[in-house]
Amino acid sequence: MSKRLLFLEKMVADGKADSFGHYCLALEYKGLSRVDDALATFHALRAKDAAYVPMYLMCGSMLIDAQRSDEAREWLLAGKEAAGRAGDSKALGEIGDALARLE
């Protein structure tokens, strides 16, 4: 197990992680092909900070790659709403591109 993964897991478990820390842990799991662990971490982040726009594209893309289209669509549509509320046009475009991969 990598030192980075251990550090991120400890930081999140200790409650010392901000939204970016949770996001980094989810991406670390994703990079290790631990899709269910990444998804659980993305869910925890979403419960903590639903306005954190980057998680939606990353989680949705991961789920597309894992051939979990229904879950991917739900994450991406929620991300489209969050990005719209945040006025994040770049994220809106990227999420739209990801949604197009599902069609």
Protein model, in words:
With 103 residues, this protein is an all-alpha fold. Helices cover 79% and strands 0% of the residues. It has 6 helices and no strands. Helix 4 runs parallel beside helix 6. The longest helix is centred in the last third of the chain and has 18 residues. The N and C termini lie far apart (37 Å). The relative contact order is 0.12.
Task: Produce the secondary structure layout.
Layout: H1 3-13, H2 19-31, H3 35-48, H4 54-65, H5 69-86, H6 89-101
Helix pairs in contact: 1-2, 2-3, 3-4, 4-5, 4-6, 5-6
Number of helices: 6
Structural class: mainly alpha
| H/E element order | HHHHHH
Query: What's the total number of strands?
Result: 0
Q: Report the biggest beta sheet as strand number plus sense, adding barrel if it closes.
A: none
Helix content: over 70%
Uncertain stretches of 5 or more adjacent residues: none
Shape: globular
Strand content: under 5%
Q: If you compute it from the alpha carbons, what radius of gyration comes out, rounded to the nearest whole angstrom?
A: 13 Å
Give the termini distance in whole angstroms.
37 Å
The whole-number mean of residue pLDDT values reads: 96
Structure keywords:
103 residues, 6 helices, globular
Summarize the structure.
With 103 residues, this protein is mostly helical. It is 79% helix and 0% strand.
